């Protein structure tokens, strides 16, 4: 299994977001490091590089835009073809599959720090990896959203409004929904 390369993951520590350019920059730093390690085998030759990206499902749309740009840039700068095999699913399920050997990964981009810690505890990621990458591996922060009924009949405007007695909060099951 090739999981010893630097993982890329999303941590949701604060309710703010990075710009698209920042997100792209941090993702590319991780991908470049992975490619550098993956391509060390052939001195003088430029075999194509195949990378397995294992990620949580929400990131697919972002990767659909980022990866083709990265592949083209790498080809121009290094005269080398990069092929990404991608797998998307729930963060916990993806981590479980990597740990069990069902899913080979060169790069992991998961929703929860615990999922990455479990992969590290299984001995598949070098300890201290987060100290060797920008922003300790945090690719982006998410934006939290409050969704109300049509017309917002209870006039909910802020997080404080969610604590009112006349407001009922529905949320996803944290055991199955990742960070929802």
Explain how this protein is built.
α2 (60-78) links the parallel β1 and β2 (82-89). 32% of the residues lie in helices and 11% in strands. It is of the alpha/beta class. The longest helix is centred in the first third of the chain and has 19 residues, at 20-38.
Characteristic key phrases:
single chain, 180 residues, alpha/beta, three-stranded parallel beta sheet, 32% helix, disordered N terminus
Give the structure's gist in a few sentences.
By secondary structure, the chain is α/β, with parallel strands linked by helices.
Instruction: Please tell me the overall pLDDT.
Output: 78
Total of DSSP H or I helical runs spanning 4+ residues: 4
Shape: elongated
Helix percent reads: 25-40%
Sequence-ordered SSE layout with sheet pairings:
Blueprint (H helix, E strand, L loop, with lengths): L19 H19 L10 E8 L3 H19 L3 E8 L1 H10 L6 E3 L3 H9 L59
Parallel strand pairs: 1-2, 1-3
Helix pairs in contact: 3-4
């Amino acid at each position: 299994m090739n999981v010893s390369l630097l993982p890329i993951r999303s941590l949701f520590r604060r309710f703010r977001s990075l710009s698209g350019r920042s997100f792209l920059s941090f993702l590319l730093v991780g991908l470049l490091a992975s490619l550098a390690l993956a391509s060390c085998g052939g001195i003088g030759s430029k075999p194509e590089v195949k990378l397995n990206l294992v990620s949580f499902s929400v990131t697919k749309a972002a990767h659909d835009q980022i990866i083709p740009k990265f592949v083209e840039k790498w080809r121009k700068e290094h005269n080398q073809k990069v092929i990404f095999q991608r797998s998307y699913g729930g963060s916990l399920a993806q981590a479980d599959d990597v740990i069990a050997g069902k899913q080979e990964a060169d790069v992991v981009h998961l929703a929860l720090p615990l999922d990455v810690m479990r992969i590290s505890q299984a001995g598949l990621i070098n300890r201290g990896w987060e100290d060797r990458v920008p922003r300790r591996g945090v690719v982006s922060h998410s934006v939290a959203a409050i969704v109300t009924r049509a017309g917002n009949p209870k006039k909910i405007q802020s997080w404080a409004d969610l604590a009112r007695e006349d407001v009922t909060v529905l949320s996803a099951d944290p055991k199955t929904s990742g960070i929802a």
